[in-house]
TrEMBL record:
It comes from [Ruminococcus] lactaris ATCC 29176. It is an enzyme of class 1 (oxidoreductase). It comes from the Bacteria. One of its GO terms (molecular function) is NADP binding. This is Aspartate-semialdehyde dehydrogenase.
Length: 361
């Protein structure tokens, strides 16, 4: 790309905003030129606004330290400085819907990490390896918004990344029923152990709204575009429990699955390790070379060993075996704030750029 696209981050001071900042350092296509946050942070430098709340393992990039934080509510002003924005704002669902549409109506594409628009019928919710064709619905969204280049695209919930890719890889065998339990890291709540000491040595068997997302969002990802909107898939039926565990990064899923056609274990593994999609074919900058790895060891995948597979953009599967009640069972692992949040959104933006949906203003 001859000239980098100018990027703004909405909600830049929060944990996902910080992850965007760190992932976009030295990105070959995108340059962060604008950071926006709540009015209380506006007017400060990014370094001042974040203060001692920098939660990433790597240092804050020098390029953003002196950027002056803009008020995220000054939509026209923020939009005038960028080619597109990533959204990680911390607001109510209705406020997020409204502000993301307001940015889109300034002819600024919005790639969102938030859940507010995941069920808006003409907003694509995309895991780029699985359903990049859902971007087709953007043309219908633009008609509704009255825009020529502005639109909203979202990525799905972090909790589904460790098992939904398997469903796509195994599509020909007809996955029909899943029982899933997710064991979710505290960074999914925007926390560290310093912020949340009661999580040390503890498990909380409830994460608000998460079970419904984990059961329904894979069906939308596996659905299809019909008459200008996304129609979710009928199968598989999914039931899920979501548990918060004392892990910083990495969501693990324990999955039981039934198929319409009974595949062999070897067939299932072969489909996982050869599964690829548009990001691999187009060699997008953030794309994992191998999206899904299968680990043969009985004690893998483990967060400590495997969460950073493919720089946190890959999915690790293990312990696939026949079950006494279901056809098979397995364990999945994905990085919840990289593949599951900011990294997944960056990959979406790369796919949208490669397909011509995001261009310089």
């Amino acid at each position: 790309m001859e000239q980098k696209l100018k990027v703004g981050i909405l909600g830049a001071t929060g944990m996902v905003g910080q992850r965007f900042i760190s992932l976009l350092e030295n990105h070959p296509w995108f340059e962060v030129v604008t950071v926006a946050a709540s009015p209380r942070s506006a007017g400060k430098t990014y370094e001042e606004a974040v203060g001692d709340r920098w939660k990433m393992d790597t240092p804050m990039p020098e390029a953003v330290k002196k950027l002056v934080v803009l008020n995220v509510n000054d939509v026209e002003h923020v939009a005038s400085t960028v080619d597109f924005v990533f959204s990680a704002v911390d607001m109510s669902k209705e406020e997020i819907k409204a502000i993301e549409e307001a940015y889109a109506k300034t002819e600024t594409p919005v790639v969102s990490n938030n859940s507010a628009h995941r069920w808006t019928p003409d907003v694509p919710m995309v895991v780029p390896e699985i359903n990049a064709e859902h971007f087709e619905v953007i043309k219908d969204q633009k008609k509704r918004l009255g825009t020529t280049r502005g639109f909203i695209a979202v990525k799905p919930n972090c909790s589904i990344q460790s098992y939904a890719p398997c469903l796509a890889a195994w599509k020909e065998f007809g996955p029909k029923e899943l029982v899933v339990t997710t064991y979710q890291a505290i960074s999914g709540a925007g926390k560290t152990f310093k912020d949340w000491p009661e999580m040390v040595g503890n498990i909380i068997p409830y994460i608000g709204g998460e079970e419904e997302k984990s059961e329904q969002e894979p069906l939308r990802v596996l659905g299809k575009v019909e008459n200008g909107q996304i129609v979710k898939a009928e199968l598989p039926k999914i039931t899920c429990q979501c548990v918060r565990v004392p892990v910083l990064n990495g969501h693990t899923a324990a999955v039981f699955i039934n198929f319409e056609k009974k595949p062999t274990k070897e067939q299932l593994i072969e489909k996982l390790v050869t599964f690829k999609g548009f990001p691999q074919e187009a060699e997008l900058p953030s794309a994992p070379k191998q999206f899904i790895q299968y680990l043969e060891e009985d004690n893998r995948p483990q967060v400590a060993e495997d969460v950073n597979y493919e720089n946190g953009m890959g999915v690790s599967i293990g312990r696939l075996r026949e079950d006494s009640m279901f056809d098979y069972k397995f364990i999945g692992l994905s990085h919840n704030t990289v593949r599951g949040a900011a990294g997944g959104a960056v990959l979406c933006a790369e796919a949208l750029t490669a397909k011509g949906y995001i261009e310089k203003k």
